[in-house]
Each structure stands twice: as C-alpha cells, then as structure tokens.
Write a structure and sequence with these properties.
This protein is 62% helix and 11% strand. A hairpin with a 2-residue loop joins strand 2 (101-106) and strand 3 (109-117). It is mainly α. The chain is built from 6 helices and 3 strands; from the N terminus they run H-H-E-H-H-E-E-H-H. The protein is globular and about 55 Å long. The longest helix has 26 residues, at 145-170. The N and C termini lie far apart (63 Å).
C-alpha cells in the first residue's frame, strides 16, 4: 500500500492552479448561483437516470402532471421549460417510445401537438419523489427556513432582472 504522504504530486492537479480569481464580488455571487444550479442538476440527473429519464424528460413529465387533465400543448411545455421546439420534439418522441407520455393532435387545431402523461409516467414520478425529496433535504440541511425564503425571493428577482436584460440586449 502506498502512503499518500510519499506520493509525488508535482505536475498533478493537486498543485495550486496557475490562476488568480479576478471576478468581482457580484460576479462571484452569480457564478455561485450557476454552480449551485449545475450541481443540483447533476445530482438529480443521477436519480432520474435510474428510472430511464433525463433531467429535461423528468421536467416534461412534471409539467404535464401539473397541467389540467395531465396534458398540455408541446409549445406550452417548451415555453415553461425554456426549451426550443426542435428539442421538445425529440424529448417528447423518446418519452413516448418509452411509454411515459402520448403525443396527440389537438382536437381544436390538428397542427398542434398535445402531450399527455400516461399512467407509467405518473407512477414513475411517484417512485422518484421520495428519493428526489431526500436529496433536496440533504442539500438544504442546516439552512434555516428564513434564509431559504430570502434566497428564493432574491433568486426570483435575479431571474426577473436577467430576463429583462436579455430582452433589452436582443432587440
């Protein structure tokens, strides 16, 4: 057995990086939010993968479950998820192939595709719920409720501000 004390780490990633963080405080705040979101997404993707779902596929099922009669227009689901139409089509096709949802024409306009969650989709969401909730509890463990409420309010304001900035910059 090799002692870690005797291992030569010269040239390995254990060395101090040749980088000085020159981000402003506000940039560090924003990058912290991004990193937290990325870590959350990666951790939850591992849970969803056990059930044959990707993170976006899981979100489609959640949107449908929360929609009236478990159905919604593919364009409406994409808008809620901020996912382009072409991506939504591929995600929906894979979910349909695996029995999690059905795609149907809208009776009011056959050019429009409706997504309808199946019983398999509902059952899968139920099975995921406990594990997902346990993971969230572990992530937020030790953070007081008041701090979580403040963070949520601040996050909502940042989402609003970034949305407005994006609109201004794009047109």
């Amino acid at each position: 057995m090799v002692s870690i004390l005797n291992v030569n780490t010269k040239g390995c990633s254990m060395e101090k990086p040749n980088y000085k963080n020159d981000l402003t405080f506000d940039e560090r705040v924003m990058m912290g939010i991004v990193r937290a979101a990325e870590n959350f997404k990666r951790a939850h993707s591992l849970v969803f993968k056990k059930y044959g779902l990707s993170f976006p596929q899981y979100n489609i099922l959640r949107v449908l479950e929360a929609s009236e009669k478990g159905q919604n227009k593919i364009s409406a689901v994409g808008k809620i998820m901020l996912t382009p139409g072409a991506n939504m089509t591929g995600l929906a096709k894979r979910l349909e192939q695996n029995g999690f949802l059905e795609r149907r024409p809208d009776p009011a306009d056959e050019r429009v595709t409706m997504l309808v969650i199946t019983q398999k989709g509902r059952d899968t969401l139920k099975r995921i719920e406990v594990e997902k909730d346990q993971a969230i509890d572990r992530i937020l463990e030790g953070i007081p409720q008041e701090a979580k409420e403040t963070y949520l309010a601040v996050t909502k304001q940042i989402i609003k501000s970034t949305g407005l900035l994006q609109k201004e910059m794009s047109g």
